[in-house]
């Protein structure tokens, strides 16, 4: 016999009293036994659900970084795979793609990455976007490091998958075991074209600390007029402006699907118009993750090439461009109360 069966509830006693000529009967509530109170308050089957609730709680906190990881992986895989197919599988008589196919590959990658992650994490898939959301849209700062880490890992593994698929094609293209920088390393990371003199690149930090005009007109050093790194800055402005406009609720209802379509056209257009000279990073994770991956096979030269170009172009120029874009949008267009510089 169970404990519950051995503790039956007592029937409720009745009280009778006389009020004038009327006899009234009142039923009182019997005190419940300890066992019955436990049974009613917390059924036994709920006790076994506690581990499941804990697992769901932990999973809830991981969903956003996981969405950023997966979205960035999709972006980088589609983009770098399009690069590899266009370059490695072409020959003198038949091309397997052109600049447009690469632009579409990156456009599809960012659209699918945003579509997969937008409803869960906001679909940043770009550290520069995460930073602008924290500064201009009250995105929680405590989440920023986790988003950045997830985005970097996603970019790393996305490019690693591409390298695994096209490793034999790289061997055939360059020679078995031969890996050159920029060469085929440029299929994964971003590198400027060869006609940019090396001494134009290392002083960009000085230019950023002066004025935006100097950044465009004298990128790389005082007196230099080649604006290749400024293209990274300008391309990121166009991309982030498109993202801010697509997610601005004052422009109309937005959904992950509509945002994905908007960034597809933005990415494809930017790549087709300005991508050739600097490989259109516009995303610090998109460059740093694949660069870290390629360092395992190409060596440290992927970081030291052209006076550490990867710092000045894909990192500093991209973050600067994103901040400039957010500032411009909020000053000229945005009317929401969550921006530190926009007013209703």
From TrEMBL:
Q: Which Pfam families match?
A: MIP
Entry's Gene Ontology cellular component terms:
plasma membrane
Give the main localization category.
membrane
Instruction: Provide the membrane topology annotation.
Output: Multi-pass membrane protein
MF terms in GO: glycerol channel activity; water channel activity
The answer on whether this UniProt entry bears the keyword Nucleotide-binding reads no
Chain segments annotated as transmembrane: 69-91, 103-125, 146-166, 200-216, 228-245, 257-276, 309-329
Q: Where in the cell is it found?
A: Membrane
Q: Identify the keywords attached in UniProt to this record, alphabetized.
A: Membrane, Repeat, Transmembrane, Transmembrane helix, Transport
**Keyword Transport among record annotations:** yes
> Catalyses which reaction?
H2O(in) = H2O(out)
Coiled coil, from the record: none
Q: Which domain of life is it from?
A: Eukaryota
PANTHER family the UniProt entry points to: AQUAPORIN OR AQUAGLYCEROPORIN RELATED (PTHR43829), AQUAPORIN-9 (PTHR43829:SF9)
What's this protein's family per the entry? Belongs to the MIP/aquaporin (TC 1.A.8) family.
State the protein's name. Answer: Aquaporin
């Amino acid at each position: 016999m169970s404990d519950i069966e051995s503790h039956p509830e007592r029937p409720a006693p009745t009280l009778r009293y006389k009020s004038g000529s009327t006899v009234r009967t009142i039923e009182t509530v019997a005190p419940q036994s300890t066992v019955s109170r436990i049974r009613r308050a917390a059924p036994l089957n709920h006790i076994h659900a506690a581990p499941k609730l804990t697992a769901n709680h932990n999973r809830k906190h991981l969903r956003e970084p996981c969405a950023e990881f997966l979205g960035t992986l999709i972006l980088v895989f589609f983009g770098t795979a399009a690069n590899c197919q266009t370059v490695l599988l072409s020959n003198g008589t038949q091309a397997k793609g052109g600049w447009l196919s690469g632009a579409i590959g990156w456009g599809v990658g960012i659209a699918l990455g945003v579509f997969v992650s937008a409803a869960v994490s906001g679909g940043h898939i770009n550290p520069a976007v995460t930073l602008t959301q924290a500064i201009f849209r009250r995105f929680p700062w405590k989440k920023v490091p986790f988003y950045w880490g997830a985005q970097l890992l996603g970019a790393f593994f996305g490019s690693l998958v591409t390298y695994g698929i096209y490793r034999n094609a790289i061997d055939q293209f360059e020679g078995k075991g031969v890996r050159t920088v920029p060469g085929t390393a440029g299929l994964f990371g971003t590198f400027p074209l060869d006609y940019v003199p090396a001494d134009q690149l290392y002083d960009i930090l000085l230019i950023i600390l002066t004025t935006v005009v100097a950044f465009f007109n004298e990128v790389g050093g005082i007196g230099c007029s080649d604006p290749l790194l400024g293209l990274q800055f300008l391309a990121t402005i166009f991309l982030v402006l498109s993202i801010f406009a697509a997610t601005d609720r004052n422009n109309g209802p937005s959904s992950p699907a509509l945002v994905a379509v908007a960034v597809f056209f933005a990415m494809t257009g930017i790549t087709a118009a300005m991508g050739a000279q600097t490989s259109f990073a516009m995303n610090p994770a998109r460059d740093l993750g694949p660069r870290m991956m390629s360092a395992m096979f190409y060596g440290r030269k992927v970081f030291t090439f052209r006076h550490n170009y990867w710092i000045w172009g894909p990192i500093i120029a991209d973050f600067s461009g994103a901040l400039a874009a957010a500032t411009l949008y909020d000053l000229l267009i945005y009317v929401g109360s969550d921006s530190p510089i926009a007013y209703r």
